[in-house]
C-alpha cells in the first residue's frame, strides 16, 4: 500500500455510512477516532445489535442531516482531552482517503461545539501514514456539493432500517414481511395496532405502545384490518405527523375501505368500473335498481371484505328482498351491475410504487360468482394487457397507495375496477406467480428512505 502523508486536517469519506465528504482533524493524542452524531439509538436483537444516528457533516449546516446505521461493535468509556469521561458507542466503518481504504473503529459523540465533525485517532492512522502537523489538506480535496447532488441518494448504502409492521395477525403476509426484512439486515417489529396510543400535541407528537414511547422507525408497513379501520388510520396519521414514511397513507386506506367513497374516487378519475348506485331511503329501491340496469345485480355492503357481504341477486324480486334485508339491518350498501362476461373470474394486480409487479387470475369455487381465495377460489398466473396494467396503476395512484391489490373484471367495454385493496395478502399471488413480491416492496422502502439531497441555501 502506498504511503500517505496527512496534515493536521484532511478530507475523508465514509461511504458505508453514506458520508461522501467530511473534514477530519488528525489527533495522534487520541486513541480512537470520533464522529459527530446525535439522536443515537440502539436497535435490533441483543446478540447482533445495531446503532442508528444522525450526522450533520458540514459545520454550521444543521439543515444537512444524514441518517446512518451500522453494527454496534462495543460500548466503552472514553476520556476527552479536557479530562471528562463519557460512555460511547463504537462502530466499524471503511475510511476512504486518497484512493485507498481501510477499516477503522469510530466512537459516536456530540461534537457540535467542535469545528471538525470528525477526529482521526492513532488506531485509524496505520503504519503507511506519516503526519505533517504544520500542514493541512495534503490529500485530495472533496466537496460538500455531494450533499446537494441527486447522486447522493442513488449511491447511498443500503443501511439497516428499523421497520414497523402494523398487524394484529400472525399470518403468511406478516411472517413474510418479517423474514424478508430480516434477511436483508433490517430490524422488523410487528406492532398490534389496537395496543398503540397517542400523545397528540403541536410540538412533539408521539406513539406509545405497552407503556413506552415507540422509537423512531424508518418506515411503517400498515396491515390494518377492516374492523379497526378508523383507529388504525388514526395511528397511521400519528406516524405521518412524526414524519415517518408510511407505505400506505391514512387517507388512501380510509377512502379505499369505504366502497361508496372508493367508487366516487374512481369515477372522478374516469377509471372504468361497474355501474354503481347508492341511496339511503327505502322509497328509492326501484329507482336505485333502474340506475344500474336489469337483473342480475350485485348488492354489496360498503365495508365488505374477502367476499363477505356481497350478494348476487338473479332477479328483480330477489334484489328487492336482499335490499330490504340489508335495510332492516340498518346496513349501508350499494348496488352494482353484474358483469356477466367475467364469468366468475377476476384479475388481481399487485401494484407497488406505481408498477404492476405481479398479476393472477382468480376463479370462484364451483357455483360461486365470487372469486376470493378466502372463499375457496383458485388462482393462476396471467398475462395482462397494457390497458389492464394502466388501469391498475391509475387506480392505485388515485388513492395514493404505495402498495395495493387492484381487482379487475374483464368486460367487453374494457377492464372494470371492482376494488382497490390497501392491505392485499401476499400468499396467493406469490404462490401463483412464483415472484418475491415482498422483496419488491422492500426495494421500494430502501429507495424511499435513502438520504435526500440537501437543498442549497439562497445566497
Automatic annotation (TrEMBL):
One of the GO biological process terms: SOS response
Keywords for this protein: ATP-binding, Ligase, Magnesium, Manganese, Metal-binding, Nucleotide-binding, Protein biosynthesis
InterPro entries hit by this protein: Asp_endopeptidase (IPR008503), ATP-grasp (IPR011761), ATP-grasp_RimK-type (IPR013651), ATP_grasp_subdomain_1 (IPR013815), Peptidase_aspartic_dom_sf (IPR021109), Rimk_N (IPR041107), Rp_bS6_RimK/Lys_biosynth_LsyX (IPR004666)
Protein's UniProt keywords contain Ion transport: no
GO CC annotation: cytoplasm
GO molecular function: ATP binding; metal ion binding; ribosomal S6-glutamic acid ligase activity
Record-annotated ATP-grasp domain positions: 263-446
Cofactor: Mn(2+); Mg(2+)
PANTHER family: RIBOSOMAL PROTEIN BS6--L-GLUTAMATE LIGASE, RIBOSOMAL PROTEIN S6 MODIFICATION PROTEIN
Family indicated by similarity: In the C-terminal section; belongs to the RimK family.
Name listed for the protein in its UniProt record: Probable alpha-L-glutamate ligase
Native source species: Roseobacter denitrificans (strain ATCC 33942 / OCh 114)
Biological classification of the source: Bacteria, Pseudomonadati, Pseudomonadota, Alphaproteobacteria, Rhodobacterales
The encoding gene: rimK
